[in-house]
Design brief:
Blueprint: E1 29-37, E2 44-51, E3 58-65, E4 74-80, H1 83-86, H2 95-108, E5 111-117, H3 126-137, H4 142-148, H5 159-167, E6 172-176, H6 180-188, E7 192-197, H7 208-218
Parallel strand pairs: 4-5, 4-6, 6-7
Antiparallel strand pairs: 1-2, 2-3, 3-5
Helix pairs in contact: 3-4
């Protein structure tokens, strides 16, 4: 993660204003608030959305530089909240590194959008995620742990992401992802996929088996050393 605040001489190009909200009654989200803030990565415009059916559930779009200059081919990362890594510093996954890499790519590209979705633990919530961690400590992999708790392997939804993009005027994306379900999820909800940008991190001692499991059991498009290490017998 970046550790030095930006100065007036670097990263000074702030995001442009967003278009007026669509106010579409069929949309799953409503634009609620927005403001530009300074950050360790330079200026960023935050656009907060609330789910129409559940107003207490909020998601945010982070707009870097000229994020919306190419609405038919916007560089986008759809990123699910990971409190354990992004706030608590857990090294069991690569979420924190992926988030920072996506921000860096958006800035290098002179514009990009990060959709930060409140879908902790692939949609099962923080408490159940920690329960799954306890099962993983007993030997189950991330998929088997979810199943043991009575959940599907991945409960995330992407209609919210698609509706957020539409509200921002985005119709097509180059998607920063390794996950084929994200590509399908946006396509199924009317967002054109122009290309995929790999966002693979170097495995660490603590997350190598987890990443291998995602490749073998969830079909993530990863090129990993020892990529056959994760077997399909329920163990990492």
């Amino acid at each position: 993660m970046a550790t030095t605040p930006s100065t007036p001489d670097d990263k000074t190009q702030g995001p442009r204003a967003t278009p007026p909200p669509l106010d579409d009654p069929k949309s799953s989200v409503v634009r609620y608030a927005e403001a530009e803030i300074p950050s360790l990565n330079g200026p960023v415009r935050l656009v907060v959305y609330r789910e129409r059916a559940n107003p207490e559930k909020e998601h945010v779009a982070l707009l870097y530089k000229d994020a919306l200059a190419r609405p038919a081919d916007t560089l986008v990362r759809v990123h699910s909240e990971c409190l354990t890594s992004e706030v608590f510093g857990s090294t069991k996954c690569d979420c924190r590194e992926q988030l920072q890499a996506a921000i860096d790519k958006a800035i290098e590209h002179e514009g990009g959008v990060i959709l930060y979705l409140r879908q902790e633990g692939r949609g099962i919530g923080l408490g159940n995620k920690i329960r799954a961690y306890a099962l993983q400590a007993e030997g189950l992999d991330t998929v088997a742990a979810n199943h043991q708790l009575g959940f599907e392997a991945d409960l995330r939804r992407y209609d919210v992401a698609a509706d957020m993009l539409r509200d921002l005027g985005v119709s097509g994306v180059s998607l920063m992802t390794n996950n084929p379900r994200k590509l399908a999820g946006l396509t199924d909800n009317g967002i054109a996929i122009n290309g995929r940008v790999s966002i693979e991190m170097t495995p660490s001692l603590h997350n190598a088996k987890y990443l291998a499991t995602k490749r073998v059991r969830l079909g993530h498009m990863l090129e990993l050393p020892g990529r056959d290490a994760a077997k399909t017998d329920g163990r990492e």
